[in-house]
Amino acid sequence: MINILILPTSYPNIYNKNASIFVEDQAVALSKHKNLHVSVIGAVPVSLKEIWKKRLFKFGVFQYQKNKVNIELFLFPSIPKLRRVNNFIRYLLNKWLLKKNMQNKIDIVHVHNSVAAEAALWLQEKNNIPYCITEHSSAYARDLLTLHEIKKYAKIYKNSIYNIAVSPDLCKRLHYMFDVPFTFIPNIVDTEFFIPSENRYKNFRFITVANLNKNKNILLLVRAFSKVFYNNTDVSLLILGDGSEYKTLQTEVEKLHMQNQITLYGFATRDEVLHELKQSHAFVLSSHYETFGVVLIEAMSCGLPVISTRSGGPESIIENNQLGLLVENNNIEELAKAMLKVYNTVFDTEYIRNYTIEKFSENTVVTKLYKVYNDIVTKEGDAGLYEN
Fold first, then answer.
1. Domain assignment of residue 198, yes or no
2. Is the Cβ–Cβ distance between 335 and 237 less than 8 Å?
3. Which residues contact 353 (CB under 8 A, 6 or more apart)?
4. Same domain membership, residue 365 and residue 351
């Protein structure tokens, strides 16, 4: 039995049930493996916006079990615009949580995102417990890191026994930045949860699911949709999500007189996302940059063809035109043409779903991760082998 301790940057909690839910999915999937014991601990910052939205002020340790995974989170309020201070608080709390859990056997600490890895480095130096990292963050591609952070993460990656990134594009970026090997292992989709439906809406509907910030570039999607489907009431666009760009998008929809065809749904639970995917006909991702694109594989698991900008991660998902279309980043003409083409094309939903199961199902990803863990504990294999 290999004992895996997952140390996340974020995790579903009382303030945000969808926070880094792909990490929870992976933890649950790993826990089903007969040779793995999985637990999760981590300090999770909560923004003032989330505190205000929920009208909650509950912090400290939250310890519980969910889907047979033992979880211990320390929630703390983050200080606006003081990222370095927040990360230092996270580091101290993660050290405290690790010390608190030392009575339990830990074979490997699996960190999700380098921002949480400093405490894992401390534990490795103190107790000789190895750590590996899966990097999801788009900060590396969007130039959001300070020189101080880059130097710190360089040390963290060089001391990690195995480095993983969730797309080939991110592998290349990180390999170039830090001159250490990275392996591509994608995120998981729960293909038993995200299932197709025979009862889709009669009229054709595009759907997107996103945190409505500028990186997701939903404004481009709204304008592209309006360009080709204005006054075609047989076609609609549903936008699920909330964020800083919500009011801007609302204003744009009204300006384009598309209120009858474009719906801003707002925040959606996972069950609501599934329900709306099952009623839709095609999914669109319009981001400037994506490290992976979990929403794409969730839609594909439901049998939907997908359209995405060439934004990093999606290029490793949409491998052929039977799955959907890739378009140039931030190009309204290409996106509009792609949406029109998908609208006029009949896709094989069974092929799309089977492809998703083969590439991104729990069984596929867990098999790859188990090999990594086994290589680490047995000191065998080429741990950290860089893959293009």
1. no
2. no
3. 191, 196, 300, 301, 302, 303
4. no
